[in-house]
Write a structure and sequence with these properties.
This protein is an alpha/beta fold and 244 residues long. Helices cover 42% and strands 21% of the residues. The chain has a seven-stranded mixed beta sheet with strand order 3-2-1-4-5-7-6, with helices on both faces. The longest helix is centred in the N-terminal third of the chain and has 17 residues. The termini are far apart. GO terms for molecular function: methyltransferase activity. It comes from Streptomyces niphimycinicus.
Length: 244
């Protein structure tokens, strides 16, 4: 299940991509399939081991084109182990809401992104996220949980302050908002509640089968209750570079 829309966020074969806070690796895997040179970085060692296993399995199965590379590594988003201007593309999906120093993370991403490079940032959307917080303290008051809710204009302004130039936004995963509202209402750790189990089955079916009816419904509902807010931006060239 991808949050970044690659039709709005073009990726070329050979692009060097950083998936920052990669988690289970969903965006890193897609970039690898598209022929990129991918680095998936996360602070969670267990998840990184799993991502590395999937990269190896994809290579063995021939799922990535010739020239594509993939590396999974542990790292700190506030102290990235890469030189300046290292990547053509940076993706950070559902991560910034967890990190106290979000401006520091943006600064590091801008530092390692090449001039002219592209960045995709996704965070939980303000409205659906507020409902989750109102229904359940346990949803966010956990170690490593969500510490803030972004308004769209707030996130875009922080991106501009970091030196990025936003060029597009959208919302995603409208069908997932009711699932999390149910989780919060019945208990975030209670997966046995009938409404939660039933809706989870619906989501799994939707992800696996991709039926036209739910695809159309989600596109229609995304502007209203999309679970995620997605912003795309570029790192401008400096005046000196433009003159060169």
């Amino acid at each position: 299940m991808l949050t970044v829309d690659f039709s709005r966020f073009p990726l070329a074969a050979g692009d060097r991509v950083l998936d920052l806070g990669c988690g289970a690796g969903r965006h890193a895997f897609e970039c690898y399939r598209r022929g990129a040179q991918v680095v998936a970085l996360d602070r969670n060692a267990e998840e990184i081991r799993e991502v590395a296993k999937w990269f190896a399995a994809m290579k063995e199965a021939g799922e990535a084109p010739a020239g594509a590379t993939a590396t999974a590594m542990e790292g700190d988003a506030l102290a990235l182990p890469f030189p300046d201007d290292s990547f053509d593309v940076v993706i950070i999906s559902e991560v910034m809401e967890h990190i106290p120093d979000d401006k520091g993370v943006l600064a590091e991403m801008v530092r390692v992104l090449k001039p002219g490079g592209r960045i995709a940032v996704t965070v939980p959307r303000y409205g659906p996220e507020k409902v989750c917080w109102a229904l359940s303290d346990a949803y966010h008051e956990v170690e490593g949980g969500h510490i803030r809710i972004y308004r769209a204009d707030e996130l875009l302004e922080k991106m501009r302050e970091a030196g990025l130039r936003p060029y597009g936004t959208h919302h995603a995963h409208a069908l997932h908002s009711p699932y999390w509202w149910l989780k919060c209402a019945f208990g975030v750790d209670n997966d046995k509640a009938l409404p939660v189990r039933a809706y989870h089955k619906l989501l799994v079916w939707d992800i696996m089968k991709k039926p036209l009816a739910t695809r159309v419904a989600e596109r229609a509902l995304n502007p209203i209750v999309g679970k995620s807010f997605v912003a795309y931006a570029t790192k401008p060239h400096t005046p000196r570079e433009d003159q060169a």
